[in-house]
Design brief:
By secondary structure, this protein is an alpha+beta fold. The chain is 60% helix and 12% strand. The chain has 23 helices and 14 strands. It has a 5-stranded antiparallel beta sheet with strand order 5-14-13-10-11. A 5-stranded antiparallel beta sheet has the order 6-7-8-9-12, covered by helices on one side. Strands 1-2 form a two-stranded antiparallel sheet. Helix 2 runs antiparallel to helix 3, helix 2 runs parallel beside helix 4 and helix 2 runs parallel beside helix 6. The N and C termini lie far apart (78 Å).
């Protein structure tokens, strides 16, 4: 019995030691986390939380956080932050000396007051400024909010509060890992991609996309970065989660596939190579994780009972709705930023301040006392652009500045040399529109999840489809591509694409367009978002001029409606009895502009209707271009009862004959007949 008790006590003691070490490591990393290069609220926040949750670990955590907070900072700033944390430790030690239990709110309020008092005293001694006071008050309030969230999450029974606390902890840890690198790879990026992959494994496409979107904007909290990374990681998480039903191998495969397809488009060649290395390492780690670990993690987050995920119908739609609201707000913010433009010169000035002037003894004189004069001079030099010599700096600035050479180099290196203070952000507009469309997709998923008792209706109509094509004269490969596939819920997709030029390259462009559009629509993407994404991929696919037309028809075989969208494509012809209707919604082909207008035309479908889609080579076969639509309309009016495949081949033969037997462009004809099922 004594031996068993000693063994049990040793196990408990070992677990406590491991827990204490974990707290110290977390405090060290959190205290290094920086927001906007000046705010460090996570260190004081973890000390405030530990004072209420683990008072015996207060001083070890204070020391660990103090070391992390002062690491790498200039001498005076590091001492101020260390003094702040030590003051928190002394305050909480004295406060708890009377052995009276206090509510967490009182402890947090006392900690915030201590931070403001100590930091405010340093402001008074070193020279007060309005900006400095606002900064320290904001940092103290942020620290108090973090401490309250962590304290509530530790004792709360509500899953939302627990996940909020866990999310804020993960955010702080990721920010604290920013400057750490292993083998040339960013530890922050590795851990972030691991979070995305685990979110896709646990929560599917929605959780993966939301995690990717949040982590994609994480670097912008510490430095100025392009929003392209957010779009990449959101699409990576969405693609990985789309293979949720295939298990671990399917999700990891989707994760790697998305990086292979999209990294070079968003990050360039060098960034893509690094992203592929990081994603490959993360994928290997997840594959090596034991199944018991993943089940335990899933149980912790999704509340698993007896190994089966308990999907509460009233919780899942609510969470999806919250994610959709967050993505919608994110999209609105990006679009607003893109419409308003950004003050590029002010951004450049902040960069120069951080890179050159930070820590300089004359910083207060230059940037505060004579800040307006200095900013006007630097803006004028930035607007001038090009190489800059030290001799071109004003005399008063050269005589005062001890880093005149570095200042001139920093000014010349800024990419914002322009005559306007405003610069548009088309990428922000584009990503904003995509995030809003993604929010609409999640809202549709919420409505579908809520309507679980609704039975899917059988289609009232069916389709018979035929397709015929030929390459232009002296070519062996037709550059056109056609695809037809069901989309679910009684809808059917017909899409015809004509790649630029002819031959293999044109075929590659058109095939990419139809396959990608099909995959996005089958996955449930709204038609407008799917077309914009296809346009973006083709735009980034090649630096050379390259585009493809898209002729898209989505047929609702339950309600008898057809929705037609054309991006640079020829008209669609609808044969009803002896009448021929011409459908002509128009827009530019995909792959030319960053953003394209998408026009949709709806037509009612009736039994016996015949839809004919053609590429421009068919219409332009007639020598008189003014007659290019009329000859096909006349041919359709003479059509007798026949199978769609036979009709497609007949129309193609007539087009080749009109071209004198030597087509100057690829020709394709797709025919679909609507029948009652």
């Amino acid at each position: 019995m004594l031996a068993e008790r000693v063994q049990r006590m040793s196990r408990v003691g070992g677990a406590e030691w491991l827990g204490a070490v974990a707290w110290l490591g977390v405090a060290f990393i959190l205290s290094r986390a920086t927001i906007l290069a000046e705010l460090k609220p996570f260190g004081p926040g973890i000390v405030m939380a530990v004072a209420g949750l683990r008072p015996r670990l207060l001083w070890p955590v204070v020391v660990s956080a103090g070391i992390g907070s002062a690491w790498g900072l200039p001498g005076l700033d590091s001492w101020i932050r260390l003094a702040t944390l030590l003051s928190l430790g002394v305050t909480y030690t004295l406060y708890r000396g009377n052995r009276v239990s206090r509510p967490p709110g009182a402890l947090v309020a006392l900690g915030a007051a201590t931070v403001i008092l100590v930091r405010g005293l340093s402001q008074v001694i070193l020279g007060p400024s309005f900006y400095g006071w606002m900064l320290l008050i904001f940092e103290a309030l942020l620290a108090a909010g973090l401490a309250l969230a962590w304290s509530a999450a530790a004792v709360s029974r509500y899953r939302e509060e627990q996940l909020l606390g866990l999310g804020l902890l993960a955010l702080g840890l990721l920010l604290g890992l920013q400057e750490w690198r292993v083998g040339g790879m960013s530890v922050q990026s590795l851990v972030g991609r691991l979070f995305i992959l685990l979110a896709a494994l646990i929560g599917g496409a929605g959780a993966g996309a939301a995690t990717g979107a949040v982590l994609g904007f994480l670097p912008s909290l510490t430095s100025l970065t392009a929003p392209a990374l957010a779009g990449l990681l959101a699409l990576v998480g969405l693609t990985a989660g789309a293979f949720y039903n295939l298990g671990k191998l399917g999700v990891v495969g989707g994760f790697i596939l998305a990086h292979l397809l999209l990294s070079s488009y968003f990050l360039g060649a060098e960034g893509a190579n690094l992203a592929l290395k990081e994603s490959g390492l993360v994928a290997l780690v997840v594959l090596l994780l034991p199944g018991s670990f993943l089940k335990g993690l899933t149980a912790c987050i999704t509340n698993v009972n007896n190994g089966n995920i308990r999907r509460e119908n009233f919780v899942i739609p609510k969470r999806w709705g919250q994610v959709a609201a967050a993505l919608k707000r994110l999209g609105e913010s990006l679009e607003a930023g893109g419409n308003n433009g950004t003050t590029s010169l002010n951004i450049a000035l902040r960069q120069i301040d951080r890179l050159v002037c930070h820590g300089c003894p004359a910083h207060k004189v230059c940037w505060e006392l004579e800040g307006d004069k200095l900013r006007e001079v630097l803006k004028g030099l930035l607007k001038k652009g090009g190489p800059l010599l030290v001799s071109e700096l004003p005399e008063w600035l050269k005589s005062r500045c001890g880093k005149a050479r570095e200042l001139a180099q920093a000014l010349a290196a800024q990419p914002w040399g322009c005559a306007s203070d405003k610069v548009a952000s088309p990428l922000g507009l584009l990503l904003g529109a995509q995030f809003q469309a993604l929010a609409r997709l999640l809202e549709e998923m919420v409505s579908e999840a809520s309507a679980t008792d609704e039975e899917e209706l059988d289609p009232y109509f069916t389709l018979e489809i035929g397709y015929a094509s030929c390459a232009r004269d002296q070519d062996f490969t037709c550059g056109d591509s056609f695809l037809s596939t069901p989309l679910g819920r009684g809808k059917y997709l017909l899409v015809l694409s004509d790649g630029m030029g002819a031959g293999c390259e044109a075929r590659k462009e058109s095939r990419t367009a139809v396959e990608l559009l099909k995959d996005l629509l089958v996955a449930g993407f709204p038609r407008e978002l799917a077309l914009r994404l296809v346009n973006l991929v083709l735009l980034l696919r090649s630096p050379l001029e390259s585009f493809a037309t898209l002729d898209v028809a989505v047929l609702d075989l339950i309600q008898g409606r057809g929705m037609f969208t054309k991006l640079g494509a020829c008209p669609t012809f609808l044969l009803r009895d002896t009448q021929v209707l011409t459908i002509k919604p128009q827009s530019l082909p995909v792959g030319i502009l960053e953003d394209i207008p998408v026009e949709v035309v709806e037509e009612e479908l009736q039994p016996g209707d015949i839809l004919v889609m053609v590429s421009d080579g068919v219409l332009e076969a007639h020598r008189d271009l003014s007659e290019k639509d009329k000859w096909l309309v006349a041919a359709l009016r003479r059509v007798s009862e026949c199978h769609p495949q036979e009709l497609a081949e007949r129309l193609l033969k007539q087009a080749v004959a009109l071209a004198g037997g030597h087509p100057v462009d690829d020709m394709s004809v797709a025919v679909a007949r609507i029948q009652v099922s």
